[in-house]
Amino acid sequence: MLHHLWQRGAETTDMARTLDGLVNEARYEWFGCPRFGLHVSDDDAAACRRCRHSRGELTRGKAGAWRFSDDRHLPYVATRRASMETTHARWLDEHGRLHRRDRDRPALIAPALRLWATDGHVRRDAAGLPSIYSDGDRHAFTDADGRLHRGGGQAAIVWDGSAEHWDHGVLHRPNGPAITYPRGYTGYYLHGVKLDSRQDLWAHWVHDHAGIDLDNGDAQSFIAAGVGLSKDPLEAFPVPDADMVALALTLCPNMSDGAS
Q: Where are the alpha helices (DSSP H) in the chain?
């Protein structure tokens, strides 16, 4: 079992749960000896006997990754029915975690799926490349702790036309929707907290970039008109210039500044 792709207790999405379920499917877990979980190498498969080997012997006493091919059709090897149905290869460390010493290569290779992992964390050293990749326009990015993440304002998950922005395991995008789906749904999140509307996100944006109080709707509207804020929910917010902010606060001062 790999670590989950989001922070503990964080709100998640159907897309993230689907992706998490995909990479954590039972057929990709330990297999083989019911006592120790691991199986011997391909060359020794025919000689394997139940419960006669220590875990160290099963991995030949070597630290690091060991390749296993798909579960063999032997009654004491195929511990799950699903394991017998999909041909794949994975690289495990001595603790049974997905791990590949050659970090440039995927630790799991299955039909329509490539996954990079070390020490049981979904992660990839190569900058700018996804750690989960499927056929077509399907990929996801993670941070060094194996949590969904991508910097530079780009979506961490792009899957079948959907896009989700994650920041170290929580949904987050300060200047636009954190979730967009092909049928038009958009969702707004800051540091994992869901906002009710694009207007709420705009209020936080001008608060953070212009010092406008969250309840100063007049100043927010004045600046929105001044920058020509688009009604397109997918368009990112612009940063207002200092002169416009000063004029907005002159005409619509913050109550927190002592305005009467």
A: 14-23, 55-58, 198-210, 217-227, 242-251
| C-alpha to C-alpha distance for 239 and 222, rounded to whole angstroms | 14
Calculate what percentage of the chain has a pLDDT beyond 90. Answer: 47
What pTM was computed for the model?
Answer: 0.79
How far is 245 from 145, CA to CA, in rounded Å?
A: 39
User: What distance separates the 2 farthest-apart alpha carbons in the chain?
Assistant: 87
Residue 13 CB partners (closer than 8 Å, separation 6+): 164, 171, 179, 187
Encoded tokens for 138: 């399907």
Q: pLDDT for 4-50, tens place per residue?
A: 899 988 889 988 988 888 777 766 655 444 444 444 444 444 444 43
Q: Which residues contact 172 (CB under 8 A, 6 or more apart)?
A: 165, 166, 178, 189, 190, 191, 192
Average pLDDT score over the chain: 79
CA 20 remoteness from chain centre: 8
Residue 237, amino acid = F
Q: Where are the domains of the chain?
A: 14-194, 198-257
Of 154, 147, 203, 216, the C-alpha closest to 180 is 154
